[in-house]
Amino acid sequence: MQPIRVMIVEDDPMVMEINAEFVSKLSGFELAGKAFNGKEAISLLKDIRPDLVLLDYFLPDTNGLSLLQEIRTNNYPMDVILLTANRDPEHIREIFRAGVVDYIVKPFRFDRFQTALEQYRYTLRKFKENRPLDQADLDAIKGIRPYQSEVLVEELLPKGLNDRTLQQILQFLAGQEIPLSSEEVATGTGLARVTVRRYLEYLEKKGDIVMDVQYGSVGRPINKYRL
Question: How far apart, in whole angstroms, are the C-alpha atoms of residue 197 and residue 200?
Answer without folding.
Answer: 5
